[in-house]
Amino acid sequence: xxxxxxxxxxxxxxxxxxxxxxxxxxxxxxxxxxxxxxxxxxxxxxxxxxxxxxxxxxxxxxxxxxxxxxxxxxxxxxxxxxxxxxxxxxxxxxxxxxxxxxxxxxxxxxxxxxxxxxxxxxxxxxxxxxxxxxxxxxxxxxxxxxxxxxxxxxxxxxxxxxxxxxxxxxxxxxxxxxxxxxxxxxxxxxxxxxxxxxxxxxxxxxxxxxxxxxxxxxxxxxxxxxxxxxxxxxxxxxxxxxxxxxxxxxxxxxxxxxxxxxxxxxxxxxxxxxxxxxxxxxxxxxxxxxxxxxxxxxxxxxxxxxxxxxxxxxxxxxxxxxxxxxxxxxxxxxxxxxxxxxxxxxxxxxxxxxxxxxxxxxxxxxxxxxxxxxxxxxxxxxxxxxxxxxxxxxxxxxxxxxxxxxxxxxxxxxxxxxxxxxxxxxxxx
Amino acid sequence: xxxxxxxxxxxxxxxxxxxxxxxxxxxxxxxxxxxxxxxxxxxxxxxxxxxxxxxxxxxxxxxxxxxxxxxxxxxxxxxxxxxxxxxxxxxxxxxxxxxxxxxxxxxxxxxxxxxxxxxxxxxxxxxxxxxxxxxxxxxxxxxxxxxxxxxxxxxxxxxxxxxxxxxxxxxxxxxxxxxxxxxxxxxxxxxxxxxxxxxxxxxxxxxxxxxxxxxxxxxxxxxxxxxxxxxxxxxxxxxxxxxxxxxxxxxxxxxxxxxxxxxxxxxxxxxxxxxxxxxxxxxxxxxxxxxxxxxxxxxxxxxxxxxxxxxxxxxxxxxxxxxxxxxxxxxxxxxxxxxxxxxxxxxxxxxxxxxxxxxxxxxxxxxxxxxxxxxxxxxxxxxxxxxxxxxxxxxxxxxxxxxxxxxxxxxxxxxxxxxxxxxxxxxxxxxxxxxxxxxxxxxxxxxxxxxxxxxxxxxxxxxxxxxxxxxxxxxxxxxxxxxxxxxxxxxxxxxxxxxxxxxxxxxxxxxxxxxxxxxxxxxxxxxxxxxxxxxxxxxxxxxxxxxxxxxxxxxxxxxxxxxxxxxxxxxxx
Lengths: 429, 573
Prior knowledge:
The structure holds 2 protein chains of 2 kinds. Chain A is mostly helical. Chain A has 20 helices and 1 strand. The longest helix of chain A has 35 residues, at 378-412. Chain B is of the alpha+beta class. Helix content of chain B is 16%, strand content 34%. The longest helix of chain B has 24 residues, at 520-543. At the A-B interface, α3, α14, α16, α19 and α20 of A face β18, β20, α8 and β27 of B. β1 (426-428) of chain A pairs antiparallel with β27 of chain B, so a sheet runs across the interface.
């Protein structure tokens, strides 16, 4: 499988190189859908220029990257970060598929599946091309290409999260903890990925998730110690790099309090542009809690399926974070081929894909009409933002429904009958 | 300043001055300079100077007796420990290329800069109270000056009076480009004069004529000065510059008189003034071939001002014969020939916004050095509001299409909703050249309450300040003498070969993208709906389980079963 992956990488690099050299690169790096105040390359250059002038980059309101990112060579790696992400996703999905197939084999041998749901089982033949499809979905996704050509640091964030997933799936708790700390240090939201990673390790080490068992707490504390320890070390290193704690209000305070209302594809900007001052703090808290709040319920429901939980968490972060960009969307969309066996249970996939395609096409049009032509106003762009997020929410909840439904069928049988013997329909009650 | 006239020198005897100061602490001088411009317009500049030999800031000395110096300003100075105060209100923009250099430059709108004493501990608190008190004194909306439009320039605004302070922590500078000047600002300004508007030159200040002009600027400058360097004195200068347009006020006729300009004539000098004079610039009219000046006066004066030696006809209003038989003095200038081209001013600056759309833009500042062979450095100061995000890595300075790197850059980036950008640069201008400074910016979307009631008018960006020591054609006088006319002694001259010039560029008007102001409820409802859709679907999937759907029996059957249950009879299936 190395050859098709290499070919894919070459094609992806060619497309990016072609776009990079053309005049489109400048246009793309200014687009608000692709870059946000948190990860724009222009702001990184501005931060470095301020350092040259002898002014701290955090004294103004232009630079919101973490200090360690000021190390120049880290930024050169943005251009290669897409390749790293793709390879990491490829290897992790490959590992995941092996796990899934092994578990399925044991369950089959112990006769745990009802007789009629054999067609729901997955075969190696069908699963063979999935890792390549995942890498392809990531590399050839227009969102990723745009994000890479714009040199947004979102690519770097995606690479770190992909490496974290790879290390988790390979079973290395130390590396996984360090990479998660790095991802959290860059933008706080990956904090919620702590729960699925922990659940995966517990499952792998055959430790039951029981709050009364000491083995559970022992491992949890170990993993938490690795994570929190690396986070403290990295934060301390940033302090020593610039000599001040200025970066904490400038980066984390900025993410949480949303002072910059530049339009983007998220829900925050227009909401807080039109917010009454009296309620601003309340709604900031509500919206930020909304991102973190699904972790515990989802972890309880999906405690046996930690990889799907990771997908759900990444999707929720991308939709509800304060400054989303299309690069974040591209990361969770890369996972979709891994759940291609759920296709028969998806209810709204056609509608959702039409909505997402139409919105992606309309974003630049309505932006142009508002900002340049002056014939539309901000409401048009806001409406498309709403629709895009609505489409994303439908997509994620649809896959969740399909996954839960397949699990239900695997335990209760595929063809269900009502009490009188006629064909039954399944509802959520 | 010499009188090459048969009348003779009016020499000042030092002992007389000393006695004068002991019995009457302070003096008042007033003057009016009229300079006809090449385009046919006329420039009139009033200056009123009140000197007061006292030290407000001395310990244990409470000042309670005010004579010539206005009490309101004196109390302000002592309460806020102000060392220097400069405030100006301007309506219109000074066109340097058509009118030359003004005596006292000022930017459009209101400008206030203050040097506080170094004993002040909370400069920001003093600044805030000072702006509010001044807005009451001058009936202007100076209370809009707050930390979001105040800067602390590090090099551009050095003290004009005594003292060599270098700590710019005690300096505050703010402009309000949107401020409109009207009669309500002129009236309290006139009240600060010792004679008010009852006697002296101030009777000419009638608002209906003054505000019907191309340019109107009134200013108050307070600074401590060195009185023969034996004692410290406070100097209050009130200046009023006005340019009357040939076509609007002059009805197209190249003939100007005091009555035509101000609709009043002078009847007497201010009795409290130690000197009251009218100067008319006749440098371009040595033989009287350009315009005719009446009434004729034998007094002539020469002064070196703005790097040039100018000749003036002087009218001394303290002498009764100036007013003639009718006891009224009306100056008349009648043009005879066509004036040639004006000498180009040596330093000139322009500024404009480039770009299209509401997302980004570029500020271009163009500085012209019209000296044929001398290069000199200029200090450019830019204060840009926080909602225009400047990108300093896009700053380019080009002269004669080559890169010109500034030797000193002081940049303080803006903090959202707290302070504006401050950019100060020292640029060396090559001779006879045009230097262009460009910097890119991004426009921010503000919260809906932060827009002015007319958001589509745009947001003002204050003028840039270009300060320079321009090489002078004529040697400047470095020591200040008592009998020098006021207009040539405003700016202290440190060296003979150059004079200080400050040029203000145009203020900019920039449009920002606006949200829809009628939508707060709608936006809250719609966004919360989308979040609720997400919450609802996840809640359903998390709390409910899949069950086989047993259809409920029709209504008739259910009712029948209910009745059967009551009767105790077996139910229908």
